[in-house]
Amino acid sequence: VHSGPEVSRHSDDYTASKKDLAETYLPAFKDVIAQTDVASVMCAYNSVNGTPACGNNELIQNKLRDEFNFKGYIVSDCGAIADFYDVKSHNIVSTEAQAAAMALKTGTDLNCGDHHGNTYSYLTQAVQEGLVEESDIDIALKRLMYARFKLGMFDDANNVPFSKKPMTLVGSAEHLKLTEEAAQKSLVLLKNKQLLPLKGNERIALIGPNANNTAILLGNYNGTPITPITPKYALEKRLGKNNLTYSAGSSITGEVYTHYQPIEAKNFFHLDHNNQMQPGLIAQYYPASNFDRQPAKRQIDKNIDFSWERSPIDNSIEQEFAVKWDGIIKPEQTAQYYFKATNMSFTLNGKTVNGAITLNKNEEYILTAQAKFNHFWHSNVINPTASLGWLKNPQNLTQQALDNANEADVIVFVGGISANLEGEEMPLQIEGFSHGDRTNINLPKSQLNLLKKLKQTGKPIVLVNMSGSAMALNWENENIDAIVQGFYPGEAAGSALAGLLYGDFSPSGKLPITFYKSVSDLPDFKNYSMQNRTYKYYEGEVLYPFGYGLSYADFKYKNTRHSINADTGDLNLTTTIANQSSFTADDVVQVYISMPDAPIKTPNKQLVSFKHVTLKHKTQNEVKFTVPKNQLTYINEQGNAVAYKGRLIVTVGSGQGIKIPKDKFTVSNIVL
Question: Domain boundaries in the chain?
């Protein structure tokens, strides 16, 4: 029962009714636990109905363990148990031992470390104070050890299948093909005014802050792509540089830019023992991230652009270290520069650089920089990275984009936001974004202003919007010829997008969330009531509905039949889908139900089943569904499922039936 806000989640208490808990918040957990042997569940930071989630007996014991029959182990979110006694957080107990005892006795088996250390290290004290019994600890210990046994951690390596898998499998051609297929199926075509697919002979102006931004490939909590393919890389490879021009065009928002380049080695120098200028920076590497010690290693680094697979000190897998760089930076031209330091800090002439700074050609600026990699909370010592990049004269971006657009036949604008703007508990606080949350859902102003100028060129525009969350693309929907929702589709995102643009496949992705017209249409962020939320309960008009997505193919739906299984009470559905196109294509067939005769408020519509189907050209197939009896129920105010009696409205097709042609779905009225 957690969705935000990020900035206050360590102290917030969210109220959810029994009906909302059973109807919306808990079904995913219940279904996954029932259908799989899921090993672990994480409890959240916030309180639910007065009690922190990781100490919430109703959620953990009564629901997860007793009602849902969960047999695995529960781990806290990192720092959640420390929130029990932190005076700036929930502050419901006085000591670490009390917090540890409360969480453990509730059923939280493992503490993901916290900024106070490890609250579960106080379990010994909790036993001594009589707050828990050793038998309570034994229960958690058995669950955790059982998980490790299942992973084969105590077996001979020869008996563990995964120990025999070579590292060459990681990022293999087979895996890259799979990630491209996944990306293809996730792209959603939102609008197409007879522009896509492109013919292939057009000159393309590729514009936008996300066109060459690797951050759009992945969301938060991700590994490092082995072969990152941006839209720019894929389109250059497909079209050749002569048929494609590129410009970032604008910031992604405000003064946040995405097209920084690593500062090249030719710009870095240091003074040798004879006070003579030499290439590179003086680097000093320290063990255990401690600058108070003597450096373990000194060398000259040509620039600052590193991804360490092993320790730069002793080549070990353990990578806890620190590094200092000293030297001179010497620009080759006078310009206004923006700098971007990743996992490091730096100064120029002893001053921290904030925002734009003008540097003069061939002038020498003293650079000092440092980075630390350690095991403290929220630190990453696995494949650490450090880089220092810059960009020049961002004020010229708009004109560069317009010049490129005027010389092109089609504009492909790759914009939106990125996981660097939306994510978990970020320090970022600028217009539109707060600590990882969104304060509005509009396309950032810098991009919208550029799009309006590009529209004035008269050239057709394809907008590719990259975002993990919904965007209010209102002006864009009215004025742009084609719109693709890209989400963050993985390391082969560029290849998948190029394939969609040129018709290598017909898009089949459907929206997994509702795209609203504005946040002003929605309840307050801290209000956890489901009233007027999501496609199931929203009463207004949306921009793009949940389940929506266009295709290049011409699918038709007809002749939906139904029957009730006399023995089980399950609802059997059969519908006919025809592909009237001249090519093979995929579609996602969706089944929604409505219960208009229920005695209380029920969802307007609810998705109960879906299937991804492939249909050859000029053929038709029957698609069958079984809706289990337990889904033909509604939830009463006490949170209990009640068998539904009355008229059941069933919609089967390419979406809910909202904003798609009538022949893309069928509707049946069934009496239960």
Answer: 13-150, 183-258+395-509, 264-303+309-383, 555-671
At 590, which helix (H) or strand (E)? strand 585-594
DSSP 451-497: HHHHHTTT--EEEEEE-SS----HHHHHH-SEEEE-----TTHHHHH
pLDDT category at 597 given cuts 50, 70, 90 is very high
Provide the 8-state DSSP code for 368. Answer: E
pLDDT in tens, 91-142: 999 999 999 999 999 999 999 988 777 999 999 999 999 999 999 999 999 9
Instruction: Please say whether the beta carbons of 507 and 552 come within 8 A.
Output: yes
Residue type, 6: E
* 13-150 CATH: 3.20.20.300
Strands 244-247 and 204-207: parallel
Model confidence, pTM: 0.94
307 contacts 269 by C-beta, under 8 angstroms: no
Residue 427 makes CB contacts below 8 A (sequence gap 6+) with 435
DSSP 14-47: E---HHHIIIIISHHHHHHHHHS---EEEE-SSE
Specify the fold of 183-258+395-509: Rossmann fold (3.40.50)
Cβ atoms within 10 Å of 206's Cβ, excluding its own? 27
CB 389 within 8 A of CB 344: no
Rounded to an integer, what distance in angstroms lies between the CA atom of residue 47 and that of residue 36?
27
**Chain segment 516-538, per-residue pLDDT in tens:** 999 988 999 999 999 999 999 99
264-303+309-383 — its CATH code? 2.60.120.380
Q: Mean pLDDT over residues 364-375, rounded?
A: 92
| Partners of 44 in beta bridges | none
